[in-house]
Amino acid sequence: MKAYKGFDDNFCCRGFQYEVGKTYRIPDDEIIGICKNGFHACTSPIDVLNYYSPYRDTLSRFAEVEIEGDICFSQGKDSKICGREITILRELTLKELIDIQIHPEKGTNRTVEKDRIIYNKEQQFVAITNEEIFKDYKIYVASSADTSFISRDFSALINQESYSSAVSTGVFNNVITMEDYSYAVAANRKMSMDNAVAFNDYSIAVALGSGGVKTAITYGESSPAITDSNAAIAIGDCSEAIGLGRSSKAIAYGDCGIAITTGLYGSAEVKGEQSIAANLCEGGVACAKTTGSWLILTNEDVEGNLIVKTIKIDNKEYFSNVFYKLDETGCVIRA
User: Fold this and answer.
1) In 88-160, which residue ranges form alpha helices assigned H by DSSP?
2) How far apart are the first and last CA of the chain?
3) Are 269 and 251 in contact (CB under 8 A)?
4) Which of 63, 95, 138, 310 is the most exposed place for a label (fewest CB within 10 A)?
5) pLDDT digits over 262-319, tens only?
6) Residue 57 pLDDT more than 70?
């Protein structure tokens, strides 16, 4: 059975090391069970993000796999399965994973029955359902430009048009926009996991809400990612990552990027050239991976007055790959 699986940045899952092209098998005398024993994956690509958010402590990785032998099916609300044997067919980028969700025929050697397409002219969206591939799930795809699509009930919104927005307020949201000048917004006040992903240039990803795990990621140039929880990741050049909540992480990968955290104990990190990491919160830290980048550090002194210092990473006084913060006297120290 064809399925999709997530891994950490070392291509491990729960401490087990995988490798593309290899097959792994549980001994025949062991009992297979969901969340107990066996190799787990999801038949619906988008469901993988429920277990491997695009960003956890590091960027997650994904693969197309084949599950064989004894297979158990989840009784929950997604497409998780568990099998005795797994073959790692090929690694997928996040964009490829989502593309297969929209176009199942792009999966390796997959035979797909014709999808039932439901057009709703008033709301301007397309509902795609396929009993074999998606089971009981409905993946909503924006069908035209200059539209907004809002969902409160479904777990996935995918917008393929420019100048459009996709907004979801349901539980366990995966909100994705794939063209320029688009908005992906996941907003939920419940304890849930929400991923807002914008792939192309000049787009915005926003993941907000109290509780749970909220991750906002942008891949294009000049595209901000904003979250009030977990992580804001901006991968393209000249993009901004903004973490607003307590203990949020803001990471800018591209050159001339900006990472800002404003919540208590936030962490701002820049990895590209000529970038700025700003810690604008008490107990926060900042780090730059390259020389020539700048850190803005803040704290309060014992009387509650704001202290601000700016330092340049020169590998002489202040070094790359080191997290810095201000103490209560205004001294720059290693975190």
Assistant:
1) 94-102
2) 48
3) yes
4) 310
5) 988 999 999 999 999 999 988 899 999 999 999 999 999 989 899 999 999 999 999 9
6) yes
